[in-house]
Amino acid sequence: MRLLYYILFVFLTIGITNAQQIKITGKVTDDQSLPLPGVNILVKGDANGTQTDFDGNYSIMANIGDTLLFSYVGFETAEEKVTVASTIMDIKLIPASSQLEEVVVTAYGSNRVRKSMSYAVSSNKPRRRGRKHRQRRMSKPSGVQVFSTGNALKVRGISSVSGTKQPLYVVDGVPIDNKDITVVKAIDPANIEKVEVLKNKKGASIYGAKAKHGCIVITTHSGNYKVQNDESYREIVENDFKRVHMDPLSTFSIDVDKASYSNIRRMINTGVKVPADAVKIEEMINYFNYQYEQPKDEHPFAIHTEYASTPWNTKTQLVKIGLKGKEIPQHEIPASNLVFLIDVSGSMGNSNKLPLLKKAFKLLVNQLREKDKVSIVVYAGAAGMVLKPTSGANKHEINQALQNLEAGGSTAGGEGIRLAYKIAKDNFIKNGNNRVILATDGDFNVGISSDKDMKKLIEEKRKSDVFLTCLGFGMGNYKDSKLETLADTGNGNHAYIDTMQEAQRVLGKEFGGTLYTIAKDVKIQVEFNPSKVQAYRLIGYENRLLADEDFIDDTKDAGELGSGHTVTALYEVIPIGVKSKYVKEIADLKYTSSTINKEYGDELLTVKFRYKKPQEKKSIEMVHVLHTDSKTSASQDFNFAASIAWFGMKLRDSKYINNQNIKDIISLAETNKEKDNQGYKAEFIRLMNSYQGL
Fold this sequence. Notes:
- The chain is of the alpha+beta class.
- The strands form 7 sheets. The protein has a 6-stranded mixed sheet with strand order 21-20-19-22-23-24, sandwiched between helices.
- A hairpin with a 4-residue loop joins strand 9 (117-120) and strand 10.
- Helix 8 (354-365) runs antiparallel to helix 9 (395-403).
């Protein structure tokens, strides 16, 4: 009997121990001790899970005796059992398979013998081969197969014999998806300047897990093969300094879009040269959140101003104007009538387009409430509705409709937009959140397709009080200019989603700001005091400039502000009495003379704001004055925003930065990344370090 009690006691003790829940924290790195962001961590046999942040850190609750699964694309899944001593669990993931040890690149041949070359990694020396050698299988290192196939390139190594283990091809800095490998085969050998082979960890260290089987880097003479040319960006002409005597007013529309930053991040992370027109400094600055206080009065946003010395030019000063939108709790957001307008054309077949899009939209669906409703419209060669208006309570039905989508056909974007707006209007919720969410790479090629025609169509549709959100996906043929035009014209916003982490930010963490507008047609007009400022320059917002008379014209469209959004604008100003090469001499005026009003000697500038409530047509004006005695030491918010602008100007090769030293930019950002709970600011610093190494 005593033995029976003892056995029961042991089993009871084990059960209690195993049921004890503890918090486990740690860091996940690769085999080179580099942090891995976005690693999935699950409790085996349970839905409980989390992801690592941008520094590879994580925390999760689990019971003693549970097994944690660590999974990441391109790496072997790791399993670790939770014990009493497991409160700190650091994990190192191992690449999923052996890497390409030997690679031979050949058959970039042409009819001229002198243009045909083959490269063997083992020797690192190019060897010319005659036609006779190209017509038969060539001698090769053990385990490597190389075939001559005319002008096509064939590479097979010990880890790439199967079709699922191909080396990564990079053409003029653009990684090529395996589904687009025909792009490589179509290159004319006469256009190739050089071919470089990276193997083992070298390729993966530059291009990530996709290069784990080796990397073939092809550089053409032009340096911008059509993969890069197919991406389009609206031309940006950098703002110049303006004399206050001649142009005392500066007027522009706010911009809460953040697409430019995530797109630039994608380019730097994949080793792509960043086109100057892809760099929208205002979108880079506004990607980050700042510690602005919420409004305390009847207005939907609060105004914050600050000025201090300019970090890249000791002779100028920098003015920061910040807005903070009122944060509306999700349960207080009015009922939503959403129409998902999804591009399922053939160009959306790549893994970073439609497959990523479907996963991203599930994040949004998971936050819908019973009172919300969703319709799904797709377009390829034609447009059609694949999901009738469905309550947010029926998440499985909505997700199943998303999962069933497949890519194929041409792109009739205009037809899709018309149908989506019609469905949104037919199901319009008065005083609700009525919105079309367009997800595409922007490649419209059937029906109306030009930026001008698309703008005209959206101008007509926005009269229905249906807002528009544009989500860009993919690379190679991404049409940023078109999506920017649609979002700007359609009372909406524009984001670029390159990873699930970005999807979580846009459609998860910032759900309310992305989808619920608290103020529309928000305009800013700044008047500088000529007794204090001789010249000024707005940094960024080149595509958002307005005529001065547009400020009080309520028929002129401007930007929208979402729940909890912050907006930041920077002006670089040249004080009175400072000699600057940026202020050019002008001839004396014959008929005009200006007299400075010295009554406002303690004011640096006056900033006015106009906005409309989402369902109204008449604007409301707010006024804020920045006094000269408000100059103090720069806040961390101020300095971090300045570091972003500084880096953006460096990317654009701006003529307005005297100090081009990227180490100084990194140092300014590092010392001012206050309250970085999500790791975005640390990621920005790592991004600049990566750019420095390119």
